[in-house]
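step=encode ok
step=design start
structure_in=
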């Protein structure tokens, strides 16, 4: 974290303890996460840290110190995720939800048309709807529609005289009510799905979800494997903003970073979902073959043995590792 040109955080204080142990001076340079490893690999920086996971691929171009932190990933969600966003629901329905209603609505139209024809056949000899198919069929369909919506007194402009036609309309109304019930059920299901779709309890639930993650991190390929729709961000703060505005369903990032945010700035609206997953080790990045690596590792061991490491961990995360 940066404030007033000064940096703070667990790794910042850990590095400063190591530098003190080694008796070396240093100067901080701020860069984007994706730039850190290339800068060290190209010998434009001596050391880099920012919750950088030790991986085999990364060790092909740089060296890592001993593990500085054992962690993994967490999923951050909004506490308000189950509340219905009516504007968002309508927008989603207009873009994709209507597809659920196309088939039952088409079936309803066919039923109205068929029963309209049946009513016309039954009535053509009575003179109520007319002898000719046109406009008789249009009048029959209109009568059928009026019966379906339950307003025959208000909308009937034509008389149905035969008992056969009345029976057909009554039977048709029952069928059409069933289809209307199906349509209403689909609408209800869509709204309910919108409401509960963010019941994310673990990484497996991220499939099909919109998830924000910092570009250049190990989260990106992992989320692809999980089938999530990835929204890459440059800084984790951007991910928090998107989650708070409901622009994404979740944020996946390093566990200690998300836990700290949830306990502080995000205490009122954010929460962690599920258990720690994709466990990993973080380390300081050094130039390949750097003689400085051995000194850093020895200082790190000293700090672990004399209690400084545990004190820093407790300060930032509440309990000793």
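sequence_out=
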């Amino acid at each position: 974290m940066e404030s007033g040109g000064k940096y703070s955080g667990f790794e910042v204080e850990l590095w400063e303890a190591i530098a003190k142990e080694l008796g070396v001076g240093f100067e901080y340079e701020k860069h984007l996460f994706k730039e850190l490893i290339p800068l060290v690999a190209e010998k434009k920086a001596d050391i880099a840290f920012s919750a950088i996971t030790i991986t085999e691929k990364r060790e092909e171009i740089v060296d890592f110190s001993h593990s500085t932190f054992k962690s993994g990933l967490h999923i951050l969600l909004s506490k308000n995720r189950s509340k219905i966003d009516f504007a968002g629901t309508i927008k989603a329905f207009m873009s994709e939800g209507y597809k659920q209603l196309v088939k039952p609505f088409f079936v309803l139209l066919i039923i109205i048309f068929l029963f309209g024809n049946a009513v016309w056949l039954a009535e053509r000899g009575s003179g109520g709807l007319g002898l000719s198919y046109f406009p008789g069929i249009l009048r029959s369909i209109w009568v059928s529609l009026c019966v379906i919506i339950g307003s025959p007194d208000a909308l009937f402009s034509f008389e149905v005289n035969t008992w056969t036609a009345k029976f057909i309309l009554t039977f048709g109304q029952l069928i059409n009510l069933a289809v209307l019930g199906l349509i209403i059920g689909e609408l209800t299901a869509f709204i309910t799905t919108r409401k509960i779709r963010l019941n994310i309890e673990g990484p497996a639930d991220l499939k099909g979800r919109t998830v924000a993650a910092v570009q250049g991190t190990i989260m990106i390929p992992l989320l692809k494997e999980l089938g999530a729709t990835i929204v890459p961000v440059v800084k984790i703060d951007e991910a928090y903003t998107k989650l708070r505005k409901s622009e994404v369903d979740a944020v996946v990032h390093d566990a200690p970073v998300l836990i700290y945010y949830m306990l502080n700035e995000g205490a009122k609206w954010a929460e962690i979902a599920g258990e720690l997953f994709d466990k990993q080790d973080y380390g300081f990045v050094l130039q390949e073959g750097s003689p400085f690596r051995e000194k850093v590792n020895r200082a790190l061991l000293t700090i672990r043995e004399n209690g400084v490491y545990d004190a820093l961990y407790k300060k930032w995360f509440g309990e000793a590792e």
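step=design ok
step=annotate ok -> The longest strand covers residues 270-282.
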